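step 3/5: co-fold with pyridoxal-5'-phosphate
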Amino acid sequence: MSEYILAQQNGRNIPSEDTIFAVSGRANAMIEKVGKDKVCNATVGTLLDDQGNLIVLSSVDKVFHELSPAEYAAYAPIGGTPGFRKAVIQTALRDYQPKGIVKAVASPGGTGSIRLAVGNYTERGDKILVADWHWGPYGKIAGELGRGTATFRLFDKDGHFNTEDFKATLESLLKEQNSLLLILNTPAQNPTGYRMSDDEWAQVISVIKAQPKDKKIALLVDTAYIDFAGDENEVRSFLPFLEDVPDNVKTMLAYSLSKTFTLYGLRCGALIGFSKTEEEAEEFVRVCEYSARASWSNSPKVGQSIIERIFADPELLKKVTAEREELRNMLLERGHAFEEEAKKVGLPMMPFDGGFFAVIPCENPAALGREIEKEGIFIIPFGDGLRVSLAAIPMDQCRMIPAKVKAVMDAQR
Ligand SMILES: Cc1ncc(COP(=O)(O)O)c(C=O)c1O
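step 4/5: write tokens
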């Protein structure tokens, strides 16, 4: 019997409170009471300046304000405007020249693109494969669409990609189902900040290649934080692997403009598919546009128009890229400072390379998190650890948090 009054549960477990919003709610309540300068709110998933204000790229903001009504208020075509579809491939791939055919379908943010991939490259009842450390909405999207999730252990004991567990889990799933979608979130993974190395990529691809050719396998790389991971071309070194797969494998990028162009609330993203033939490419576009029509219809035009304008003007593109580089350097410096302090005081961290977040592994994260809140520090219990949003806190707090957390951890032992 469902515990729901009139709604249908449909296999989903819908909690009454979202953990992230609950912790950030308590942070805001404390800020009201004791003032902003006494509280460290490391919960927010957007890039904030040292005063805690949302950062919007000023070059992007300027374009936004110059848009004509038709550029922001009109319906966009279901799969996105032609200019956006071309530009989003350029921004996603940068200098990489693909061998095959690459197509993009617009989506409301990266989230929408993940939904398109799950809806079209898995069967109902399938389990999608994700790492144990993963962004919660993967499971929610799967559940909403009548799919489930299976996890593999992301790290081995040395903090490298756990190819052995990945292979075993993938192979056992493929014994039970004929199709499989694997989601890898790299570089600058949420929550850990980890980036898969090219050697690790080679291992993943070789495991996928070794699977029976009558199974349909899809590999979705969630690149939500790619432009905050390091040099924008260097961090794309994995792209050739996506074109080195057999015919039974579909590779895709879930690309989000939320962080890269600070368009968070404008809901702008795209699912980008690599295809070997025109037929496969046409199918990719057709099925994704159908799903878009059946879920959100068209995606907002405003972000698409901004991206079109930026890519039509090389000088403007240079400006936006330079501005983002500055922000990225600020964020990477915060990450290095946090790492340095953690090392100094002996606070453990999950493998971290860059990006918005870092994780302190611990036992009983919910209880430890509540203890740390007493110090005015708000961080999110996430899996078997606490996730710190480096994007949301200034340098002095990045330097201060590790020692404080370590002290609370030690006092609890
Ligand atoms: C891992 C990951 N993937 C995808 C997204 C999608 O972001 P959006 O839908 O806001 O573009 C996010 C945003 O928080 C994320 O953390």
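step 5/5: annotate
The pocket of pyridoxal-5'-phosphate is lined by residues 45, 109-111, 135, 185, 190, 222, 224, 256, 258, 264, 269 (CB under 6 Å).
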